[in-house]
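Hi C.,

You asked whether I'd gotten around to modeling the 298-residue construct. I have! Everything is below, sequence then structure, no commentary in between.
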Amino acid sequence: MKNGIFILFTIYFLSCNAQNGTTFEYNNFEDQILSYEPTQNIKTSKKDFDHGCMIIKETKSATKNKTENFNLTDYFNILSAFLSLKESKENIKIAFEKFKNTEGSCEYVLAFEESIKTIPKYRVILADYLDELKKCKLNPIEEKKFRIEEYCKSNNLNLDLVKKIDQVKIDDQKYRKDSFNKLKKDQQKLDKKNQKIVNSLYNKHKTYLGKSLVGKKFESVMWAVIQHSNTEMMAKYLLIIQKAVKEKELDVVPFKMLIDRFYGLKYGYQVFGSQSGFGFELANDKKRKEIKLKYGIE
């Protein structure tokens, strides 16, 4: 929503306790982020500005304001925030460099291909992203080297269960990146099949299938099936996943994404800003505090 010129100038100087003209450096990036307070420029809408500010605030919280705690998800979120805030091209480029040079970035580059190619805010990094996408496709993630028997033996896991969850993981992504209607329908069929499997496994094990049962590599597979389901299934498992996060069976980031997807689909707003491109509004401060308190998230 566009504001009048005087309101824009007021927000420009006052919003987020703004500091002017931050120029980010690659080697000092994390320290700068922890002291960064965004400013709204005339090209940025109030909605995008609030969204970007919220992501920066959440990143500081997630890293506990310590530079050594920054991870791949944080760098991707900062990049997303910079794009929403319409930071300078130089600063956006530094954020992209930090993201792509972090171990495991190819997984994100491949997973978000459709979103980055189609969502307008990513256009500013599209050329750099396409270069990185080409490299990631030439040097795929080392899935072919993975030996499931060795993985189960070294982690003392049930081979049959891990094989089943491995197939669920494969099916969850089989056609998800394709835009053809027929393939989308094929993915929906696989999603429903996976949902039945997950429900069956939960009924059998009476717990979330996390790190203890399927190891670090597959700890988020059950979450992914729920994330790609419907609000009824999400509602059923929200507290179960909350418990899994508390017991260190799953990282908190997927849980935040599930909360955003659930509240976005059901009520039209999100809490953490993780669901870009869906058109979900950002919940007001009161509602965000209520939901964070409900699920025990700082």
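If it helps when you're writing up: The beta strands are 269-270, 281-282.

Thanks,
B.
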